[in-house]
Amino acid sequence: MTTVLEATDLWKSFDDHAVLRGISFELARNEVVAVIGPSGSGKSTLLRCLNLLEPIDDGVIRLGGDDISDPRVDANRVRARFGIVFQHYNLFPHLSVLDNVTLASRVVGRMSRRDADARGVDLLARVGLADKAHDHPDRLSGGQQQRVAIARAIATDPEVILLDEITSALDPELVGEVLELVRTLAVDGATILMATHEMAFARDVATRVLFLDGGIVVEEGPPSQVFGAPREARTREFLARFTA
Question: Where does it reside (predicted)?
Fold first, then answer.
C-alpha cells in the first residue's frame, strides 16, 4: 500500500505542557484510521499539526513523500492538499451553502465560477443537500451544516481528509446522518484520518485504530484487535467505559 501521510516522532507543547510526545504513524492511500482516546490526549492537536495549523516543536511530517514540516514550505499550498472538517462546521455565515463549498476551488484552485458551481451542485446532491444550495448556513440544522462542511472538504479532491470530532457538537439525533456520509466516503475509497469518540463507528468503519493517551500512541492495530482484544491495560481501561 502506498503511504500518503507519515508522521515521525512528533512533539508539540503549549507553554510547559507537552501535548504530543513523540508520535509516529503512517496513513496509506484509501485507508481509514480512527484516532481515539480521552479528552486531552492530543487527538485534535495532532490533526491541527498535520495540517500545519499548529507548528510542531520537533519531528517530521511527510505528505505524498514531501517534507511539509520544513519551515520553508508554503503552508497554504500544503493545506490545500488536505480536506479538514472541524467540530463546529466553520462555515462562512455571509456566504450561501454553494459558495461555501466552492470557495477553495475558485480562490485556491483557480477554477472558473461555472465549473466550480457545477461541481459544488454535484457535491451537494451527493450529501443530500442540493435543494439548500442557495440558502445561508443559519437556515440549516447542525447535521446539515456538518454535511456542507464535509462537501467543502472534498471539493478540491484532497489527498487526505482530516475529521476532528465532527459529531461532538451535534444533537444525538443528527449524529447518524453525518456518520453515514463518512461511511460512504470510506466505501468510495477516501483516505481519512478521523479523531472520534464514536467507538462503534470507529470499530465498523476504520481499517486501523490509534489509541492516544497522554500524548503518545499507547496502542495501534486493526479494530478487531484494539476493540476485541486490546493488548495494553490502559486501552482496556479506556474502552471499558464504553462497554460497561
Answer: Cell membrane
Alpha-carbon distances, residue 115 vs 88, 111, 118, 122, 238 (angstroms): 28, 6, 5, 11, 47
Q: Are 164 and 137 in contact (CB under 8 A)?
A: no
| Residue 99 phi, psi (nearest 5) | -65, -35
Q: How far, in Å, CA of 170 to CA of 167, rounded? A: 5
Other CB atoms within a 10 A radius of the CB of residue 107 amount to 11
Would you say domain 1-81+195-244 falls under CATH 3.40.50.2000? no
What crossing angle do the helices spanning 97-107 and 142-154 adopt, rounded to 10°?
20
Beta bridge partners of 32: 192
Q: What is the pLDDT along the chain (244 residues), one digit of tens a residue?
A: 799 999 999 999 999 999 999 999 999 999 999 999 999 999 999 999 999 999 999 999 999 999 999 999 999 889 989 999 988 888 999 999 999 999 988 887 788 899 999 999 999 998 989 999 999 999 999 999 999 999 999 998 899 999 999 888 788 888 888 888 898 999 899 999 999 999 989 999 999 999 999 999 999 999 999 999 999 999 999 999 876 5
Amino acid at 185: L
Query: Which is nearest to 97 in space by CA: 152, 47, 51?
Result: 152
User: pTM surpassing 0.70?
Assistant: yes
DSSP β-ladder status, 58-63 and 3-14: antiparallel
Domain boundaries, the chain: 1-81+195-244
